[in-house]
Specification:
The chain is an all-alpha fold and 85 residues long. The protein has a domain of 29 residues. It has three helices and no strands.
Length: 85
Amino acid sequence: MYDDANSEFNFSIGWLERFKTRHGIKSYRRFSESGSIIMKNIEYALPQIRAKLKIFYSKDIYKMVQIKFLFGLLVSLLILYALNM
């Protein structure tokens, strides 16, 4: 691929994971999506969102985390069902 690369040098499968384990290298997520939020946009949109949500019962409002969990559960159940067919 590269002219100056040593073609005899090959990495085995999983070498990076073993290297990271051996040297204690870990990955941490410091910020999630909230790191890119512009607060002025939130301050503007939050009253509008609250006004729209007032027409619903609180039992009918779900957080995205709950929806992600339910979707993952559905996928798992479908896989189990497919394996048992």
